[in-house]
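Holo prediction — magnesium ion.
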Amino acid sequence: MDAIDERKYLRLNRFPTIWCPGCGIGIVLGAIIRAVARLGLDKDEVAMVSGIGCSSRMVGYVDFNTIHATHGRALAFATGLKLARPEMRVIVVMGDGDALAIGGNHFIQAARRNIDLTAIVINNSIYGMTGGQYAPTTPRGATATTAPYGNLEPPFDIPALAASAGAPFVARSTVYHAIELDRFIERGLRKKGFSVIEVLSDCPVFYGALNEMGSAVDMLRWYRDNTISVREAGKGEGKLVRGVLVDRDLPEYTEGYQRLVESLRGKGEG
Ligand code: SF4
Ligand code: MG
């Protein structure tokens, strides 16, 4: 098979991106493009839906079908799209605040419903676009512009939340582990059902600066040194576990919906 030119999935005339130098979001964009290319998908077979935030600007740079929706509502728009066009691969890109604060209810309902979407949660532990406010993912004790003396609240564990709400595929990686990340996204895209991939991503401008984590490169090193593959999880006390954490088969919503519509049509009720 000929190598696929990955640039065909990008709107190159929109580059350079708005992201700050050193921001991890571009690495996630690269991983998504490699995953889509490996699956050999035509760009018209793919839709990307986002909400509001730095990472949600990604839809402007990809030449798929795209929707830049309202804050926290990317999964609601994506659900409607998937039901209308079930053959389409739908990738939903969300920041941590967008996915789990404003959109938290949509997130758990989409997981419970098990609708065939690939949800990529880019977790930089803070609200980037609006100026560094703490989010439901900010670690306890970390500093944010709205938590100058340290955040009092515990963060969500995104994979645990997704799994307990019913998602059949849940993975976690980081922007340091870019090659691993695109494999996880590829597996999420192959999975029939609601797939969640959490990506720990650096925001050197707000989270990194407010928490004295050094440069973007230092933050990438932090991901290297403070996470561990699920295969070695027993050896890394206190480290965040990366890997495919859940992969199970559960009934998928779109297929059930189509079967219901067809059976009602067969009875003359559709
Ligand atoms: Fe990235 Fe943070 Fe800049 Fe937003 S504010 S583009 S998350 S570095
Ligand atoms: Mg964020």
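READOUT: The two ends are 43 Å apart (CA to CA).
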